[in-house]
Amino acid sequence: MDDFKILFIGRSGSAKTTAINSASQVKVVSTDVLMSFMTTDVKKETTVGLDYGDLMVSIPGGQRRLRLYGVPGQSRFSFSWEIFQQGCSGVVLMIDATDRCAIDDIHYYTSAGENTSKRIQLPTVIAIVKGDLLSLEGLSQFKENVSKANISLPVLWIDARSKDAVLSVLNILLKQIGR
User: Fold this and answer.
1) What does the alpha-carbon distance between residue 70 and residue 47 come to, in Å, rounded to a whole number?
2) If 65 and its partner were Cys, which of 3, 102, 131, 156 is the partner (CB 3.0–4.6 Å)?
3) What spatial distance separates the first Cα and last Cα of the chain, rounded to whole Å?
4) Could you say which DSSP state residue 130 is in?
5) What is the pTM of this model?
């Protein structure tokens, strides 16, 4: 049985912890702590180390263990991103549709070029969350911006609280890894 290390990355508040909790078959190891500033009614904690969950999936060729790692989204923890990418099989880039920097984040994390460890060079799927919180006009504009961004990666709109939605993202990622 092969293990796959799957990294969930994105800004703070992009539902990385929620997605891992939705998919994991074991109790998630979490390093969430109370936020010291900018708390909201919705988000009172943030990840400062990593989240870890575990999931067994059946794919052609047998069972595979997916080791799900969520990294902190705050830029002050960016030094750890290179470390977490070591031995990684693939990445789920979590994007919050309500964040005004969402399109910039997609470009930042996926652009080739400058020799920086923060850019992804692994099989990647983009999971966009919180689209349901946008107005119809805002949602339409965001989808248009994603379309104009000329993204060559799979993009899925999901509810990170839904196990089936997160499993769909992981299945697409596994197909990319298998290529």
Assistant:
1) 8
2) 3
3) 18
4) -
5) 0.84
| Residue 45 three-state SS | strand
Q: What is the CATH number of the domain that holds 162?
A: 3.40.50.300
- What domain range is 114 assigned to? 4-178
Find, among 77, 87, 63, the residue nearest to 31 by Cα.
77
- Are 7 and 72 a contacting pair, CB within 8 Å? no
Q: Quote the tokens at residue 141.
A: 């504009």
156 CB-near residues (< 8 Å, 6+ apart)? 125, 126, 127, 128, 165, 168, 169, 172
Dist CA 87 CA 37 (whole Å): 34
User: Nearest to residue 93, comparing CAs of 114, 109, 69?
Assistant: 109
Per-residue pLDDT reduced to its tens digit, 114-145 = 445 555 678 999 999 999 998 999 889 888 88
Tell me the torsion sign for CA atoms 97, 41, 6, 77. Answer: positive
How many domains would you assign to the chain? 1
Give the strand pairing for 51-59 and 62-70: antiparallel
